[in-house]
Here is the input.
Amino acid sequence: MYAAGERADDAVLLAPPEPLTLEALGRIAAGAPVALGDGVRSRLEASHAQLVALGRSGRTVYGLNTGCGPLCDQPVSPEAVPRFQRNLVRSHATGLGPRHPTDVVRATMAARAFSLAQGRSAVRPLVVDTLVALLNAGVHPVIPEIGWGKATSSGGRHDTAPPRRSPRRVSHPSSSRAERRWRS
Here is the structure.
């Protein structure tokens, strides 16, 4: 799915530390393809490797092997970590009301991909690759308008709830839509 006249070689490059400009974000929102810049993959791999090493070290790491918010002192056993991480994503993927327009969803997905591409979040490279692939294929999560602005138990804010919904959508494609097949 590309904007009128756009081709894959016209892709907007997500290449931190170069900024993602409002003009580039607007092009992506309108349907322009996206590509990752040089060095992104190596930053993602290095960051994720640090997280894996930290997890294997046996050290206590907030939100990785402990609960969050008021449960921060509760350890999560190594066997329970995968389920805990899935449930953490699910707990932040709630909302209701009308869905955001596709251009807003695309801009949100692009901003999240750019943010993660900086290599400071320790996500697997597959997460960023998937966001880019979904944008380029015209598949977007259905993100409801209501669910932001409320403080969370971890002290964060739900203004990041729409970007947090994307991981859930990747693992539950029934709540995503392909623009080529479905329009409102």
